[in-house]
Amino acid sequence: MTTLTGTPLAPLLDQLFAEADEAAAETDSAVADLSEEEQARMMRSKTGYLDLYGRLKNVPLAVSRETGTLLYMLARGINARNIVEFGTSFGISTLYLAAALRDNGGGRLITTEFESSKVARARENLTAGGLIDLVEIREGDALQTLKSGLPKTIDLLLLDGAKGLYPDVLALLEGQLRPGAFVVADDADASPDYLARVRSTEQGYLSTPFASDVEVSMHLI
Length: 221
Ligand SMILES: C[S@@+](CC[C@H](N)C(=O)[O-])C[C@H]1O[C@@H](n2cnc3c(N)ncnc32)[C@H](O)[C@@H]1O
Hints:
This protein is of the alpha/beta class. Helix content is about 45%, strand content about 20%. A seven-stranded mixed β-sheet has the order 3-2-1-4-5-7-6, with helices on both faces. The longest helix has 14 residues, at about 10-20. Bound molecules: S-adenosylmethionine.
């Protein structure tokens, strides 16, 4: 039995994914006045994300179950003790990562989110999952909240906030990534600059797409 498959976490994740399915219609209506091109532009923009995520503040926008399980397995496989996450939302991916820390024997997960109502939801969910003691939620824009106070080494980084900021957030944290650290980027296709960086053989990463919307990269140096 693992923390992920036991109680209270497994039934909590079932409930949160059921709620996420129900919220799908709300996601559509929050952006109904925007064309697909406009949504894509906001998603990639370094400024338009504020409006986009403001509209989506009531919906979880969570990673898939498969990506959650991948995150848990990667964190367990490298015995991660220090994890950083960009984009907390309701804390669903955070629950998977914190469960891995628990099963690794402990550690620290720093996650960041600028929508205060989402920070409150994430805190509630992490408390219900019995994992809040492992998690520090930093409220604010990641480019500020992740500037300092980081662990000396980072074992795993999840990028799941504004896609246009993936290269900037990576640049902030890169110095702390240990050799063999994983960087997982959700919906990375919306960040071509980021993909160009981690897929270039000269940048110190080995990188591969996974399940069409996730880029899994290993920091080699
Ligand atoms: C796709 S959702 C994250 C989903 C979450 N990782 C999960 O699987 O449960 C992206 C979240 O990042 C937040 N976000 C976007 N850009 C941000 C930024 N620059 N700083 C902090 N949070 C940001 C949004 O408000 C949104 O809640």
